[in-house]
Amino acid sequence: MASEKRNFGPVVTSLQNAVAKRLVKLLVLVEEDQDLWHQDLIDRLSLPPTTDVIVVSPDVFRKISGLETTEGRQVLAEIGLPEQCDLRTSKRIIVLDRIQDPGNLGTLLRTAAGLGWDAALLLDGCSDPFNEKAIRAARGAQWRLGVCYGDTALLKEEAAAAGKGSSLLLPLLLFCALPGRCF
């Protein structure tokens, strides 16, 4: 398919620019002074000629990407958030309480998804599971697990609703001062 010539607007240099504020909805983002790799990408993926290509300054690029160093090229796509899960239909739920570090939260979500868990209940005080660091650490587990939000009252209510014949696994924290001496 022959590519059509695209016109590129002025370089975006400020995060206050309306274009920079909506960049999460764009498809291809290119740092100023980079080669035209994006044209090849658009052609190979058979994207429509209306695909937006925005050129931004290195400072704006770093802010949008969330990385200190970049290769100057990034593809962005708008992805819908998953629907909130239904705790009553989920069989195996990981309950996370006050996990404030987004990287740790993402790692726990990725591990739960890898172990075949159905959902994650994030109690008050947890980091945003859709924070850029959480998404990076989870490797997209947020879209494989159902993610629910609640507090300890909701947890008690759901545990009571599960009724007899169900089990609730709670973590047992062991504090080890010396090897072999946990309490």
Automatic annotation (TrEMBL):
- Entries under CDD domains matching the protein: SpoU-like_rRNA-MTase
A biological process term (GO) from this entry: RNA processing
In terms of InterPro entries, this protein maps to: Alpha/beta_knot_MTases, rRNA_Methyltransferase, SpoU_MeTrfase, tRNA_m1G_MTases_N
**Any matching Pfam family:** SpoU_methylase
Give all residue intervals belonging to the tRNA/rRNA methyltransferase SpoU type domain: 92-150
Gene Ontology molecular function: any one:
RNA methyltransferase activity
Keyword set, alphabetical order: Methyltransferase, Transferase
Q: Cross-referenced Gene3D superfamilies, in alphabetical order?
A: 3.40.1280.10
Q: Which domain of life does the protein's organism represent?
A: Eukaryota
Name of the featured protein: tRNA/rRNA methyltransferase SpoU type domain-containing protein
Which organism's genome codes for this protein?
Guillardia theta (strain CCMP2712)
